[in-house]
Amino acid sequence: MKKYGVLLLGGHRTHQENYAQNFAQDARCQLIAFADEPEAPAQRIALGKSLAEELKLPFIPNLDEALARDDVHIVSLCTEVERRGRIGAKCAAAEKHIYLDKPMALNPEDANQIIAAVKHSGVRTQMFSNIHSTWARSVKQGLENGDIGELRALHCDVLFSKGHPGSAPIGKKRTEKPTVERYSFVEAKREMFDVGVYAVSMVNWLTQKPVQTVFGSTANYFFKEHHDCDIEDFGALMLTLEGGITATIVGGRYGWQSHARGGVQKVHLVGTENTLTFDAAANRLEVFAAEPAFEPPPPHPLDPMGMWSSTQADIGMQPKQAWMAVDSGDDGPREFSAFIDCIENGVESEMNAEFAAQSVEIITAGYRSAASGKVVKIPQ
Question: Is the pLDDT of residue 192 over 80?
Answer without folding.
Answer: yes
